[in-house]
Design goal:
13 strands, Arc Repressor Mutant, subunit A, five-stranded parallel β-sheet, 40% helix, five-stranded antiparallel β-sheet, 9 helices
Amino acid sequence: MAENEELESAETEAKQKILVADDEASIRRILETRLKMVGYDVVTAEDGEEAVEVFNKTNPDLVVLDVMMPKMDGYGVTREIRRTSDVPIIILTALGDVSERITGLELGADDYVIKPFSPKELEARVKAVLRRTISKDVIIPASGSSAGGSSVAGGKNSKNVITTGVIKIDTARRQVFRKNERIRLTGMEFSLLELLVNNSGQAYSRNEILQHVWSYPADHRIDTRVVDVHISRLRSKLEADPTNPELILTARGIGYMFQRIN
């Protein structure tokens, strides 16, 4: 049964292309081999400039990006990609460099994996990020919330469109608009917003958010600032005054929640 599930998963993801950019040939070789084994198409780059060039030529579905690379570092590559694309980005970063992880996330990366890492761990992160950013998933209510969570308290629903204040959220197309102007969100930003909006008024802890949006297991140890950075990015895009948010609130002592605006 497990083998059949793995084959089915590989067939589903067979057309998904991943760009692996790292200046260490051994890492590129290992990741290319392992990712191809589970059904992905893989292209590689050995420096930042080549990464941008390969990205523009191949239009991958996800980018695995080392921070420290010659010619252009991972930050520069992330900036270049984010000028035109919301494709998911997973950064590879050194164990002790918290600042590297935070900077990468602030620039638009969706997740990170710490070096040295297990190829299986990276495979799991790739699968989780692709699942969240490409397909639409059922939102699981936080503990204590009502089952289903399909309605937005006080929001206006028209088929797949949720309206709160001047913000409209199209859950079918995974798009967000302020009045008639589209707001560009990355796939993980949208999944985070969707979780909070679909359970408006329900506070989520950072660990709950990591479990539901990033698919981290409950016992997985990770810096919860991944959530804080994504919340900050969402506020900067959605709030009239990000320093005084009206939509995405901090639930003191718990985490975050979405508040409706009539």
